[in-house]
Amino acid sequence: MTLTLVVEIVSWMLILAGSAFTIIGAVGTLRFPNFWSRLHAASVSESAGMIFLVMGMCLQAGVTLVTVKLILIGAFIFITGPTSTHAVANAALMSGEKPESDVTGEKASKGET
Amino acid sequence: MVRNFGGFMLRALFTALTLFVLWLLMSGIYKPLIVWLGVASVLVAVMVVRRMDVVADKGRLEIKLKPFAIIGYWIWLMVEIVKSNWAVSKIILSPTMTLNRHHFNVPCTQKTDLGQTIFANSITLTPGTISVDVEDGSFLVHTVSYSDDSLSALADMDARVSKIESAVL
Q: Do the interacting molecules here have an ipTM over 0.90?
């Protein structure tokens, strides 16, 4: 009885946290000024949002086949998410979208190619 | 064409077994007809994989990683993801939204393609840093919150990824 209550509370906390991160990512995507910084905002929904939501849903489903499927979905997004982000970033670089830099002077020259 | 027949049979058997377990976990309906359909599709899949092996016999992915070190790395990566998510979320929600965007090269010391992929994906997976381009021996990384220890933090991640590659190489 108490255990189910604890599982229920933890899973809903995870689901709420995941939803919050997904919304924060969406807000960031709108607020950030240009393409490159928006990519970073989008990856907040993709990593924390996705992980917390899947974990919360796993706890909701319990020890069932649904949990196995959720874990597999999570594993696939874990690998394909960053890969597609990289693909988008690389395509932008290839088509001439120059990454901007807010760092000026001596620090910038240290990190530049 | 298949030099090591025993090894090939073992691999095919292992592939079939893995695929069949996957089918059983995914389907959840254990009527005889469905299970037999599963067996049939596993056989077709193994046949296709075998033919692809013949067509491109050097294209098989070899996973040269330390199985237990991966788990440790994965736990460390999860903590890093949570930390950097928190940092980027704070930037997004702050009224001033102070960005310190920058791009720089990070050297990578992995010996295998798989190791490099894991490193590049780990960079992108932690919000705030994105691997943009691969050059010889280094990645072009774009970050939204550049600071003096950005480089050393990524060098630390690089060393950790290199450590989970197996020493057989």
A: no
Residue A1 pLDDT:
67
Pairing of strands B138-143, B129-135: antiparallel
> What are the sequence ranges of the domains in chain A?
2-98
At B133, the amino acid letter reads: D
Contact across the interface for B89 and A21, Cβ inside 8 Å:
yes
Closest B-chain CA to A92: B132
Indicate the residue type of B104. F
pTM for this one? 0.81
Residue A19 at interface with chain B, using a CB cutoff of 8 Å: no
For residues B2 and A32, the model is more confident at: A32
Q: Smallest Cβ distance to A113: which of B105, B121, B131?
A: B105
Higher pLDDT, B3 or B154: B154
Spatial distance between the Cα atoms of A98 and A87, rounded to a whole number of angstroms: 15
- CA dist., res. B18 & res. B34, Å (int): 17
Residue B72's nearest CA partner among B163, B166, B168 is B163
Considering only CA atoms, which of B150, B144, B149 is closest in space to residue B100? B144
Is some CB atom of chain B closer than 8 A to the CB atom of A43? Answer: yes
